[in-house]
């Protein structure tokens, strides 16, 4: 720890004392309102605690340190908000995603930044979220489901295997690289014990390798944001400088954002004195494509059907009929089956079938919205079909407000009474935000909220 403090004193100079004082203060906490699923004004109005706007994201807010059990709040369950350290929202803001973009989040778990990207895309374009560690990739899938993303592909692959297969494909790439975590020392005391100068250098080497993989998947004229949650110059300025020196087709560009403080001209540093736990981000533009980096192109020799059959087959009529009994037909239109699961795919995901991609070799574990399971005899709806839908698209809906005791019983996994005699699979909303579902019969709703997501106690 003494070596870390010596480095910080050199880095901060006259501000070192202010930094040390801040290290003894409570860490910053925040939430991001998910406009993909919820009306921001309504969420702010209904939350029982104070929100203060952060400078890092227009939908990001500070919350007080005395707020408890936020993960048990109904709006958290429904994906109306994501608990996120405020300065961690800065990287996606700097990436400046536009609707219709094809975006790769290369180190995406647990999902805070990837769901922020999904929110900005608003169902358009394509989000490819990758996480090399499979257990963390499963958490990533769960968070994308909760937050209502429809246009995401999730893989669990190494960057060096994934990126060449997607050569020159993406408009925007986020590399939120694994790091030594110095910016999380106030929040995570375990990170302090894991720190060492050797660990910092190891992280810097890995980060540079990840960037050198990521560059291949970016199209000419595309933009890439590299970010960490550490203060280390080796992992921040050092990695950026080394990458630029070895890749002249890339340039560091101005994000146009005013938060934090500039370094290397246009990169950004955020210290606790700036309103966040600690973050670094740099934005690059790729100005041309080297001869050995040829973008993937649509396969003119193989038909769409041949490419789809690598992993997908068109869902049968029974699947469409089953789903259309629950939702309006416009909600989920393109259905494809993989083994015993049926997914609803956006046009941008279906378009991937026109390229010579093998999803199995790319270690894809989720595409679009998982809407149905086949149990060997019949189809059954999935939780994800209800988290990603629009409230008005479900044929049966019950909307519970914050004062309704049935809401908390439902989150606990209990059956609840109904006010009307509806029958069949039913969307459950909290304050008009889709939460999950149940099966209605005889004025009761049998709970279908997944057991692993329920409130305990």
Describe the fold and architecture:
29% of the residues lie in helices and 24% in strands. The chain contains 16 helices and 24 strands. The strands form four sheets. Strands 5, 6, 7, 8, 9, 10, 11, 12, 13 and 17 form a ten-stranded mixed β-sheet that branches. Strands 14-15-16-18-19 form a five-stranded antiparallel β-sheet. Strands 20-22-23-24-21 form a five-stranded mixed β-sheet. The longest helix is centred in the middle third of the chain and has 21 residues, at 197-217. It is globular. The relative contact order is 0.12. The mean pLDDT is 94.
Helix/strand structural class: alpha+beta
Number of strands: 24
Strand content: 15-25%
Low-confidence parts: none
Question: Could you tell me how far the N terminus lies from the C terminus, measured between alpha carbons in angstroms?
Answer: 39 Å
């Amino acid at each position: 720890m003494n070596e870390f403090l010596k480095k910080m004193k050199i880095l901060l100079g006259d501000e070192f004392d202010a930094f040390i004082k801040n290290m003894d203060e409570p860490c910053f906490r925040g939430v991001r309102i998910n406009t993909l699923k919820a009306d921001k004004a309504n969420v702010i109005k209904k939350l029982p605690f104070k929100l203060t706007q952060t400078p890092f994201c227009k939908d990001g807010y500070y919350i007080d340190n005395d707020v408890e059990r936020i993960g048990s709040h109904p709006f958290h369950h429904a994906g109306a908000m994501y608990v996120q350290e405020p300065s961690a929202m800065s990287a996606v803001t700097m990436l400046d995603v536009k609707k219709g973009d094809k975006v790769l989040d290369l180190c995406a778990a647990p999902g805070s930044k990837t769901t922020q990207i999904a929110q900005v895309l608003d169902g358009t374009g394509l989000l490819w979220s990758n996480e090399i560690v499979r257990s963390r990739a499963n958490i990533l899938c769960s968070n994308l489901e909760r937050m209502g993303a429809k246009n995401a592909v999730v893989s669990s692959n190494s960057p060096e295997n994934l990126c060449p297969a997607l050569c020159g494909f993406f408009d925007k790439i986020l590399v939120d690289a694994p790091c030594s975590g110095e910016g999380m020392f106030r929040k995570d005391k375990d990170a302090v014990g894991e720190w060492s100068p050797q660990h910092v250098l190891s992280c810097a080497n890995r980060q540079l390798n990840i960037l050198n993989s990521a560059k291949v998947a970016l199209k000419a004229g595309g933009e890439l944001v590299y970010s960490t949650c550490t203060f280390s110059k080796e992992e921040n300025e050092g990695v950026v400088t080394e990458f630029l020196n070895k890749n002249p087709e890339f340039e560091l560009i101005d994000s146009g954002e005013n938060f934090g403080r500039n370094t290397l001209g246009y990169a950004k540093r955020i210290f606790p004195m700036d309103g966040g736990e600690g973050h670094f981000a740099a934005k690059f533009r790729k100005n041309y494509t080297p001869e050995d980096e040829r973008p993937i192109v649509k396969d003119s020799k193989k038909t769409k059907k041949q490419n789809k059959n690598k992993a997908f087959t068109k869902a049968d009529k029974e699947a469409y009929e089953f789903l259309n009994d629950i939702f309006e037909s416009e909600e989920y239109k393109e259905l494809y089956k993989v083994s015993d699961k049926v997914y609803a795919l956006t046009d941008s995901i279906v378009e991937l079938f026109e390229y010579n991609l093998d999803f199995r070799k790319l270690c894809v574990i989720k595409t679009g919205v998982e809407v149905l399971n086949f149990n060997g005899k019949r189809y059954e709806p999935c939780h994800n079909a209800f988290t990603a839908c629009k409230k008005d698209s479900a044929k049966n809906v019950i909307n519970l407000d914050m004062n309704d005791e049935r809401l908390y019983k439902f989150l606990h996994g209990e059956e609840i009474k109904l006010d009307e005699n509806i029958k069949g699979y039913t969307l459950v909303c909290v304050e008009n935000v889709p939460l999950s579902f149940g099966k209605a019969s005889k004025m009761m709703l049998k709970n279908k909220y997944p057991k692993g997501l329920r409130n305990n106690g």
